[in-house]
Amino acid sequence: MAKQFTSSNFNAEVLSSETPVLVDFWATWCGPCRMQGPIIDALAAEGYNVGKLDVDENPDIARRYNVMSIPTLILFKNGEEVQRFVGVQTKEKLASLF
Fold it and tell me: Where are the domains of the chain?
């Protein structure tokens, strides 16, 4: 199961991480997000540093990163956004980021 990021743990878990972190910005009502979810969970099960952030429950973080469409996946390295994808992405493509 992928990590669950929130406004209260985002800075510590994502921005302060010493390893790259892939964050899936999603919502429960979003069909494409439900397609992306199992891919994120599979990456987590394989040991990749990935997690999900519900944009409805954490709108402040979504606004901070100008997330306008979901799913949006952002790769953070050293606390900075280095890559962004909008829409469903394949497991292989996401794994290649690490």
Answer: 3-95
